[in-house]
Design brief:
The protein has about 400 residues and is of the alpha/beta class. The protein folds into two domains: about 45 residues; about 325 residues, Aldolase class I (TIM Barrel, Alpha-Beta Barrel). The chain is built from 16 helices and eleven strands. It has a four-stranded mixed beta sheet with strand order 9-1-10-11, with helices on one face. Helix 4 packs parallel to helix 5. The protein is globular and about 60 Å long.
């Protein structure tokens, strides 16, 4: 363990030593530790601690999958303050896919070894409940080996409202139709102090946790997310992680944690409307703040095996750097992530093919491992040159 320096780092040197000792001893960090980590401005120190934890848990492997995102509709009854994706019925750019359209889009990647469809939608005010299991059945019929990772807990609660069924009954029917996992969305920030200002729907911590608890009890393994970098403070991020960690202690059902960077709408939607109502008083988290968030998340989550950088929301350079700050999961090929690309025109690629992901991971000095939705290994990829040699040579800089 490297000796702690005496220079000012935003955290008392004695406190640093206490946290270091707990990390290297494998002890669980508490809420105060999490807040102290966020108070530190020593990014190298945070990265070193998080990388130690990441290597202890997952070695130098970086997992990814070959997936695509499908957003069946952007029509939404809610108007969350941060969201530029949603449209109201009849608005320009509002759309709802017919089931045949969804199947056609899904089949576009059939020849690329697709293993997962990631399906998230607006809370459509008039689509009947039966539309959703029917979509899953049709998709599963044409892509039987592809896992359907679909719907946020917020959507499941919406299904309760429009169907009159319980979440227990809804999940049973969706699983019967082919559901393999829920998505992790709808979490945003759980603390009501923040949540009441950013969320415009009825699914809060109590229902979000209830629905994931039910899903885990039925054998589903799900991700969990956190939307950071808007109006929340570090203590809210720590609280968010603590709630999820306690739920994971109970169910063991979360496979990965995904910090999602809030997107400030420098360029808004094509119709010129500014739907992001907190835009005027927010920016975006800097790369350094993103790396700190990854590192603290990895250090706090001693019971969730993976931490993911969703490269679409962070950029490819930050994604590579994140692999040294606790991250061991780079999501997948994605393809057409409309929630970011249509709403915010953020400057990441629309698609990363398998070879692109392999190159990105190799160039960061790690070993790529292709996984499925349950984080079972599909294939391990040999390094094209010895890792030590690759790290010693200049590699591509990703924009």
């Amino acid at each position: 363990m490297t000796a702690t320096t005496a220079r000012s780092t935003g955290i008392d040197p004695g406190r640093r030593r206490e946290i270091e000792a707990k990390v290297y001893a494998g002890e669980r960090l508490d809420r105060a530790d999490g807040e102290a980590l966020y108070a530190s401005d020593d990014l190298a120190w945070l990265g070193r601690l998080a990388h130690h934890k990441r290597v202890a848990d997952n070695g130098e492997r970086v997992v990814f999958n070959v997936n695509r995102h499908l957003n069946l509709t952007n029509v939404c009854a809610a108007s969350c303050a941060y969201c530029s994706f949603q449209r109201k019925p009849g608005e320009k750019d509002a759309y709802t896919m017919r089931i045949a359209q969804a199947v056609e889009k899904a089949r576009e990647m059939e020849g690329e070894g697709l293993t997962e469809l990631h399906i998230v939608n607006g809370l459509h005010p008039t689509l009947p409940w039966r539309y959703y299991p029917k979509v899953l059945r049709e998709l599963k019929a044409v892509l039987p080996d592809v896992t359907l990772k679909a719907f946020t807990a917020t959507e499941v609660q919406w299904f309760e409202k429009i169907s009159g069924l319980s979440a227990d009954e809804i999940l049973d029917e969706l699983i019967d139709a082919g559901l393999g996992s829920l998505t992790g969305g709808g979490a945003e920030i759980f603390d009501w102090e923040v949540r009441q200002h950013i969320v415009d729907h009825a699914c809060h911590w109590e229902d979000w946790s209830r629905i994931h608890r039910l899903a885990h009890g039925k054998g589903l393994r799900t991700p969990a997310t956190m939307l950071y970098g808007h109006i929340e403070e570090p203590r809210h991020r720590v609280d968010h992680v603590m709630r999820l960690r306690e739920l994971q202690d109970e169910t063991g059902g979360f496979v990965t944690f995904i910090p999602l960077r809030y997107q400030h709408d420098f360029h808004d939607a094509r119709d010129g409307k500014v739907r992001n109502r907190i835009q005027a008083r927010t920016t975006m988290a800097s790369p350094a703040e993103s790396l700190k968030t990854f590192a603290v998340s990895r250090l706090m989550f001693d019971n969730v095996p993976h931490v993911k950088c969703f490269w679409v929301m962070h950029g490819l350079s930050v994604a590579q750097l994140s692999l040294n700050f606790g991250v061991d999961d780079l999501d997948g090929s994605v393809v057409e992530y409309k929630i970011t690309h249509d709403a915010d025109e953020y400057g990441t690629p629309a698609t990363m093919h398998r070879d692109d992901l392999l190159t990105l991971i190799w160039d960061a000095g790690f070993q790529p491992v292709e996984r499925n939705t349950r984080y079972e290994v599909v294939r391990e990829y040999d390094r094209p040159v010895p890792l030590a040699q690759r790290r010693a040579e200049p590699q591509q800089v990703w924009e």
